[in-house]
Design brief:
By secondary structure, this protein is of the alpha/beta class. The chain is built from 10 helices and 13 strands. The two termini are 18 Å apart. It binds coenzyme A. Coenzyme A binds next to helix 2, helix 6 and helix 7.
Length: 317
């Protein structure tokens, strides 16, 4: 059976870093409160970088890693909920920037679950032979939708992008699980240009939703694969709050040491968190051929999902 394999990763972050200390000057908060309640220490914030420029940078790195030329890519998916420009879609703009002239390209908006929705869309395209090589990117500049006077939300988010190159392959195990529950009022924004552009969030409801859906998604993936939780080498969770990662690990009874975390440095980059984590893990040599990786996410929509797969074999590139 045809499925997909990740063969390259890349990421890109804006240069400007905003620390918790800096936020103390903007809203009534403290470094101590933010670290204790979220695990976040700082975040990157765009000063001119856009969803498209950052996505293009991450895409180039992922292509180089995968040893693929842009012309070989026949599908580009950009997961984003913070595009600065509505038309053309970000994926088409990335296509133009990297020169992927043979690709079809479109955006996916499933908020913070967006990268996993896009990755599993790529799987569906590659599995059915509609494409062979895809670029899947999670790219967000949420700082433009954040109300920097709202201490309940502005402390959480950051800007950043991660990208992967995937190729169609034979018999590589790939298990997916996605879900959506239409609920308008928990986490929403009218989008760039709207009078209601700012992110509105009921933090406690999001927290509850994550603890309800993420462990269940993990169990579903394990059941589909016929695996035990101990067989998974890495759990790569959406980086929204360290306490959510901790609680999910506790519920699943998996050691926190198997859950990769980088929220301290980036905050919540929405669709960017999981591919940024994968890129860092690959860069640090944490991901070894044959290891089992489970990615899990949740976000506005409300949406949630996951993917369970084995890390690439270098020879397979
Ligand atoms: N600094 C200091 N105090 C703050 C604060 C801040 N940045 N934000 C809220 N508070 C205060 C509240 O006003 C409240 O004060 P009160 O007790 O006097 O009323 C107190 O801290 C507790 O607020 P609460 O909302 O109960 O905190 P919490 O422990 O639920 O943490 C979040 C708030 C937002 C950090 C947490 O709910 C969360 O992370 N939720 C998930 C959000 C998320 O992941 N969103 C993205 C999804 S993709």
């Amino acid at each position: 059976m045809r499925t997909i394999r990740i063969t390259g990763t890349g990421s890109a972050l804006p240069g400007r870093i905003v620390t918790n200390k800096e936020l103390e000057q903007m809203v009534e908060t403290s470094d101590e409160w933010i670290r204790e309640r979220t695990g976040i220490g700082e975040r990157h914030v765009s000063v001119g970088e856009t969803v498209v420029t950052l996505a293009s940078e991450a895409a180039r790195k992922a292509l180089e890693q995968a040893g693929k030329r842009a012309e070989e890519i026949d599908l580009i998916l950009v997961a984003t909920c913070s595009p600065e420009q509505y038309l053309p879609c970000c994926a088409c703009q990335v296509q133009a920037a990297v020169g992927a002239v043979n690709a079809l390209a479109f955006d996916v908006n499933a908020a913070c679950s967006g990268f996993l929705f896009a990755l599993n869309t790529a799987d569906a395209y590659l599995r059915t032979g509609l494409a062979e090589n895809a670029l899947v990117i999670g790219s967000e500049v949420l700082s433009k939708l954040v109300d920097w006077t709202d201490r309940g939300s502005c402390i959480l988010f950051g800007d950043g992008v991660g990208a992967v190159v995937v190729k169609s392959t034979q018999d590589a195990p790939w298990y997916a699980h996605l879900g959506a529950r239409g609920e308008r009022d928990i986490l929403w924004s009218g989008g760039m240009g709207s009078e209601e552009r700012y992110l509105h969030m009921n933090g406690q409801e999001v927290f509850k939703f994550a603890l309800e859906t993420v462990p269940q998604a993990a169990r579903t993936l394990l059941a589909k694969a016929g695996m035990e939780k101990e067989q998974v080498d890495w759990y790569v969770l959406h980086q929204a709050n360290h306490r959510i990662v901790e609680s999910v690990a506790r519920r699943l009874k998996v050691p926190l040491s198997k859950c990769y975390e980088n929220i301290e440095r980036y905050g919540n980059t929405s669709a960017g968190t999981i591919p940024i984590a994968l890129d860092e893990m690959a860069e640090q040599g944490l991901l070894k051929a044959g290891q089992w990786i489970m990615c899990l996410g949740f976000g506005s929509g409300m949406t949630w999902g996951g993917a369970l797969f084995q890390w690439q074999d270098k020879e397979e590139k």
